[in-house]
């Protein structure tokens, strides 16, 4: 006798359920993909409609292949969750979830992740993940003997592949041309892209888990500068600042009022190594130029801070971001976010004033040549409004929510510009602190952002677009240098030559070699061709 059932649960064939899941994934989590297809193939409607058929067949074949016995429903759920997360970021922000993006997600802080989990995100996950998964588990699948089930699956997969293959062959010219001309098409396909990104990230993580950095520049030594006057360079690693919004680089709004009054050298043509923190930071501090850099090579070799240590300099990294990404593993590292001083910090994040707070005390304690890295939170979004104190809320109305969809682009830009205004103040304050010590120290500051940001141009927000697709807004970065006159004199630099050098294209490739040059470090890993000021140094008589 059959058990009495309180809840009605309709029965469905397992292949039918797989088909439903495929259609759901294809049509409801791929808005970006289909809008691109309709745009790029607009002249060929037949190719568009046949692609729906071909993709449905391909998805059904893949889902059917993955539905193995009792694992079928959990596998469907994983696919649905991946597609739902992917569609939120792709459709809402234009963000592509590739391996770099997944690495970024794994290295992020809970506070940063918290900002992305908004009410909008939760509603989206409820509608596009929880609801369909509930439906999948509500339906009862019809059980069949193993052999019969396997045969049916094989037939369905073969038929689907035949259909997909037929469509691909019939329109191969249209599809191949579209994909070749618009590499972004496949990058927006859910859940293929997020799953592919996660697998690639896990493979890379597995391969690189046991890599120990090989020493480099162990021959490094500091060529003596003025006796009794230690040489100090502060490297400010910026966050998400884009050159387009720096008035120093020609932006119409005055976002750099304080730096404009300092004697800085601004590089208007500087580009980043990556479009995300986890890619750019290790690349910036590595000796390799972008063309020869890889994440693995970054881990396999020591970087700038190690070479400075070998040379005998004091080196420290103060972090107000998500860590040094391995760059400061072998030097003094202070995590200011963890200290969570309530004067500057709330909810697991601090404003950049936390970096200024202890700077004077540190400068007063300097006894030998030193390099200090300040890793800022800068302009990190989507919560731009949390980055600046009320005094810097000058461009209004400013977007005051993590839910960018609830703000106009003008409000988003206002909030973003306030973060640049505040960064301007932080940098200028550092320069003032250095100037105040011109009697006891020879000082300099070098500032470089890790990557830029999209603020709604072409429907893109945030950053992390694969480099070859990324708009200039994400790769064109602010880069500037300030030097105390004594610091310049002791290495025979003159300002006119430095300003001329700054007019040439520069990039993250230059940080490693330029800082070695600034700190008077001689080593065989130093490449004067990548030191932005090498051509300006005159031999200094001792
Ligand atoms: Zn970043």
Largest sheet: 7 strands, mixed
Overall geometry: elongated
The CATH class of the largest domain is identified as Alpha Beta
Fraction of residues in helices? 40-55%
* Fourth CATH level, the homologous superfamily of the largest domain: Alkaline Phosphatase, subunit A
Radius of gyration: 27 Å
- The beta-strand count equals 17
In the residues, how many domains can be counted?
2
Question: Which residues form runs of ≥5 with pLDDT under 50?
Answer: none
- For the termini, the CA-CA separation is 103 Å
Query: The CATH topology of the largest domain is what?
Result: Alkaline Phosphatase, subunit A
- Taken as a percent bin, the fraction of beta residues is 5-15%
CATH architectural label of the largest domain = 3-Layer(aba) Sandwich
- With strands numbered from the N-terminus, the spatial order across the biggest sheet is 5-15-12-4-11-7-8
Mean pLDDT over the full residue set: 92
Q: What compounds are bound to the protein?
A: zinc ion
């Amino acid at each position: 006798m059959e058990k009495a059932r309180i809840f009605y649960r309709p029965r469905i064939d397992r292949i039918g359920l797989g088909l439903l899941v495929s259609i759901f994934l294809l049509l409801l989590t791929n808005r970006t993909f289909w809008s691109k297809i309709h745009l790029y193939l607009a002249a060929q409607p037949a190719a568009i409609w046949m692609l729906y058929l071909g993709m449905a067949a391909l998805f059904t074949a893949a889902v059917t292949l993955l539905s193995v016995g009792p694992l079928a429903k959990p596998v469907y759920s994983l696919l649905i969750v991946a597609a739902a997360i992917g569609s939120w970021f792709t459709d809402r922000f234009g963000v592509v979830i590739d391996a770099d993006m997944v690495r970024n997600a794994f290295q992020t802080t809970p506070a940063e992740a918290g900002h992305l989990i908004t009410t909008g995100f939760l509603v989206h996950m409820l509608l596009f993940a929880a609801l369909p998964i509930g439906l999948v588990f509500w339906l009862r699948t019809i059980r069949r003997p193993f052999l019969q089930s396997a045969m049916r699956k094989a037939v369905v997969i073969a038929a689907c592949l035949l259909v997909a293959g037929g469509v691909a062959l019939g329109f191969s010219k249209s599809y191949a041309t579209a994909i070749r001309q618009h590499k972004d098409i496949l990058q927006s396909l859910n859940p293929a892209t997020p799953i592919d990104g996660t697998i690639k990230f896990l493979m890379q993580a597995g391969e690189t888990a046991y890599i120990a950095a090989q020493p480099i520049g162990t021959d490094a030594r500091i060529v003596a500068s003025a006796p009794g006057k230690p040489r100090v360079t502060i490297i400010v690693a910026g966050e998400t600042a884009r050159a387009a919004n720096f008035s120093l680089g020609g932006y119409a709004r005055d976002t750099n009022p304080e730096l404009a009054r300092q004697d800085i050298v601004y590089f208007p043509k500087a580009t980043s190594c990556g479009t995300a923190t986890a890619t750019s930071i290790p690349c910036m501090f590595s000796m390799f130029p972008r063309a020869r850099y890889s994440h693995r090579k970054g881990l396999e070799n020591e970087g700038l801070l190690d070479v400075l240590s070998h040379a005998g300099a004091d080196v420290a990294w103060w972090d107000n971001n998500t860590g040094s990404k391995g760059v400061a593993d072998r030097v003094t590292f202070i995590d200011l976010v963890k200290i969570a001083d309530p004067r500057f910090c709330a909810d697991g994040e601090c404003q950049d004033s936390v970096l200024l707070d202890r700077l004077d005390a540190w400068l007063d304690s300097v006894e030998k040549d030193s390099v200090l890295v300040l890793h800022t939170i800068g302009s990190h979004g989507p919560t731009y409004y949390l980055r600046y104190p009320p005094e810097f809320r000058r461009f209004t109305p400013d977007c005051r929510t993590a839910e960018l969809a609830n703000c106009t682009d003008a409000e988003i830009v206002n909030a973003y510009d306030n973060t640049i205004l505040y960064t301007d103040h932080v940098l200028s304050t550092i320069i003032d602190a250095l100037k105040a010590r011109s009697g006891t120290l020879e000082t300099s500051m070098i500032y470089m952002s890790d990557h830029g940001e999209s603020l709604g141009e072409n429907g893109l927000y945030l950053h992390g677009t694969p480099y070859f697709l990324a708009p200039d807004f994400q790769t064109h970065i602010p880069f500037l240098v300030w030097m105390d006159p004594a610091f310049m004199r002791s290495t025979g630099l003159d300002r006119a030559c430095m300003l001329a050098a700054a007019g040439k294209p520069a990039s993250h490739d230059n940080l490693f070699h330029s800082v070695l040059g600034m700190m008077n470090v001689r080593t065989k890993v130093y490449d004067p061709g990548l030191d932005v000021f090498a051509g300006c140094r005159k031999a200094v008589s001792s």
